[in-house]
What we know:
single chain; CHP03086; 6 helices; Maleyloyr_isom; Mycothiol-dependent maleylpyruvate isomerase metal-binding domain-containing protein; MDMPI_metal-binding; mainly alpha; about 55% helix; two-stranded antiparallel ribbon; globular; Four Helix Bundle (Hemerythrin (Met), subunit A)
Amino acid sequence: MTSWPILTESHEALRTAVGATTDWEAATPCSQWNATQVLQHAAGDQIAFAAFLTGGDGPSEDPFSPSGSLSDTPGNVAEHAMKLSSTAWAGVAADAENVAVPVPPNSMPAALGVGACALDAAVHAWDIAKAAGAPSPLSASLARELLPVAQQIVEPLRNYGAYAPALPGQDGDDDVAVLLRYLGRDPHWSR
């Protein structure tokens, strides 16, 4: 549905992580949330991006205060949110200068905006996969593409508690580890 490969790949990472998860109460790298809550947050963010782009309905609950109770199966919750997001982004021209997004400053060029949406899906895909004890769904190429996006949008969001402080790099870090550490995540986290 989308003409944005970065979003397609990030959605596939989220789909893979959700499919690998059986224990939705499992702890995640987001220490305050279990796997269900991370999924609710990720789905809510995808719906929020769609709502900003289309003027449609936003998420039914606050993505930053997830209840831990899903209205449908995890797969259906994820698919619904990703469909709304990808459909909304499919209508955005690649050269659009000012696209409405739920990320401060709430308007950015299309490529950065879709990158922000993709970053959200991808990093939470990693969180869910780690909770499941599954392999990382992030490819090195996706991590390389997402890092410049993160470097442009994350710092102001740290002030809102959306991301933990960046972690120092380690010898031997690959592209995925570099992205995760920048986002305040330990690439070697395990439950």
